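Record type: monomer structure entry
Structure origin: computed from sequence
Chain ID: A
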Amino acid sequence: MHIDWAALGQVFGVSLVVTVGLVGLFTVGIVGTSRKPAADGDATATTVPGTGSRVGALAAYGLCAAAVAYGIYLIVAA
């Protein structure tokens, strides 16, 4: 039995980078849609995220969904 260690290392490296990137992108989406404390210092008041952060969050979620759909395509098409 022969193991191609170089190919195994490449698969490991690419999967690590893609996983960290996808989790980071999803985190950007969560942060963009989360409520933030009010600026006046009131601990109970929260503000709704602005339009720009919501659009950025939706774009991040869309890219995550596209990456998952592409992964499923690669698995099914083979």
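Annotation 1: The chain has two helices and two strands.
Annotation 2: Helices lie at 5-33, 51-77.
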